[in-house]
Description:
The structure is a single chain. The longest helix is centred in the N-terminal third of the chain and has 40 residues, at 2-41. The chain is mostly helical. Helices cover 44% and strands 7% of the residues. The termini are far apart. The protein folds into 2 domains: 2-45; 48-220, no CATH class. A hairpin with a 2-residue loop joins strand 1 (50-53) and strand 2 (56-60). It contains 6 helices and 5 strands, in the order H-H-E-E-H-E-H-H-E-E-H.
Amino acid sequence: MNNSVGNTTRLLGAGLRALLVLTVVCGVLYPLAVTGVAQALFHDKANGSEIEANGRVVGSDLIGQRYDLPLKQGRQTPEPDLRWFQPRPSNGLGENSVNTRYKLLLSGATNLSGDSKDLIAQVKKAKAAIIKDNSTTTHEVRPADVPADAVTSSASGLDPHISPAHAALQVHRVAQKNHVSVARVQTLVDENTEGRTLGFMGEPRVNVLRLNIALKELTARGSGS
């Protein structure tokens, strides 16, 4: 009986010591070490790849956001502010989901097949809006000019990038709305176009937030050249 109690006591003591050691190592020392290395070597990425403008954080390099007008009474969704470059559609989870406007509660794809009637209807509606919004008094957008990423959402519904073709599609409209020359706005797009990762992975892309920050700086200077 005494041996049994003694063995149990020793086992409990060993278990508690192991729990204490593992808690300190895995719950304190390891997280501190990982956090320290991340902050020292990858400070920007470890903190969410934040983007700053005028001394304050305005977003992340990794998450898209919209540029809309104030919501009008009687409408469920706001209209896009056409002074700014717009991201790709964000209806990845459907029109009635919580993430229709880049809200960070959920993200995901529609999982609609290529021949889905719902997807085809969404694409046709988005394409008509793209043509209407981006045609100006001096430039008419043709259906063939509209790239795929202008009318379809990404797998996450939160893509921060658009293709150079999608950005170029918006240049005339942005230039007219901001009273800036087309050439100057196109230069902004070119300056903010990222190439393929390591020269061969992925596709060229434009971060919409960074592009709009550059546009805001341009218009603040009052440059129309």
